[in-house]
Amino acid sequence: MEEFISGDKNQVVRRKAIMDMLRDRDEVRVLDLCELFQVSQVTIRKDLDMLESRGLVKRTHGGAQKVAQIQPRLNSAD
Length: 78
Description:
Strand order of the largest sheet: 1-3-2
Oligomer: single chain
Distance between the termini: 32 Å
Radius of gyration: 14 Å
Largest sheet: 3 strands, antiparallel
Number of strands: 3
């Protein structure tokens, strides 16, 4: 996943932290992330937009959700 998270050092740290948070919960909110990282809403939205463009999160109104990992189904009949 690290190869999908680009940017300067601060961006990479924030984006990795956001992905770590989404491992523990289904959704993160822009306002909560702004407070946690002490950055603007615009900065967090840019982070979430980048993560969404890489298929790592799904943007929602006011935040983002983790993208469900689809596991291939094994069919024993094949």
